[in-house]
Structure to design on (225 residues):
């Protein structure tokens, strides 16, 4: 069964802190994604990666960076957290060959920046 | 600028009746469409998809219809059940591995 896990379900941080969100998938998927979900805006793509050490900017990369050192792990980094980064963060993965565009999501991390 | 639009933020339907969710898109490069379902405090789960070579795809109680000329798709749930109460997201792909999502429609199924 497909499994994407995220390191925390809920996180509270202070403005200016560096924040790490971790995502792990056990499906041997090449592609991994980070989204944020906000009311009325749906899911917006922050960054994605189609291979180890590869990364591409999504629609809203400002204020974020990512790291993919291993195939199964994709990290989202908030260099200096701000209150407008309070959101639900969702990680997803997909396989480039099998149903390429069907993405499988983790449970999400609700981040609050005070 | 959102390329995928779900213009109805919410939908209330009686148990046993049909739920119809609508989605419009603007990018003519999109050729693969998906619906996801999301419960509170959980990640979205894949529900059903359709390729642009088809105009209908059915999976149990769920049917997705695609009208390419109108750039419109819809999801029908028949019959609606209380467990269907969730947020439904429409998504589209231009086969570049990325998905563009709509804002979501919250469905409430009344007993």
């Amino acid at each position: 069964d497909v499994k994407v896990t995220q390191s925390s379900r809920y996180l509270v941080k202070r403005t200016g802190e560096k924040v790490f969100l971790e995502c792990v998938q056990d499906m041997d998927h090449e592609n991994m994604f980070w989204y944020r979900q906000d009311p009325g805006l749906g899911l917006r793509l922050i960054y994605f990666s189609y291979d180890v050490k590869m990364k591409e900017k999504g629609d809203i990369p400002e204020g974020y960076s990512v790291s993919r050192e291993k195939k199964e792990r994709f990290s989202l980094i908030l260099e200096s957290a701000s209150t407008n980064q309070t959101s639900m963060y969702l990680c997803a993965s997909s396989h480039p060959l099998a149903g390429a565009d069907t993405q499988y999501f983790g449970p999400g991390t609700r981040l609050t920046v005070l | 600028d959102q390329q995928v639009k779900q213009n109805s933020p919410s939908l209330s339907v009686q148990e046993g009746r049909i739920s119809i969710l609508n989605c419009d898109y603007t990018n003519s490069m999109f050729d693969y469409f998906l619906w996801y379902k999301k419960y509170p405090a959980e990640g979205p789960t894949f529900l059903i998809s359709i390729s642009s070579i088809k105009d209908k795809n059915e999976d149990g109680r769920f049917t997705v219809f695609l009208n390419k000329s109108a750039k419109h798709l819809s999801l029908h749930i028949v019959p609606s059940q209380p467990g269907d109460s969730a947020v439904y997201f429409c998504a589209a792909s231009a086969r570049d591995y990325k998905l563009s999502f709509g804002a979501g429609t919250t469905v409430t199924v009344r007993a």
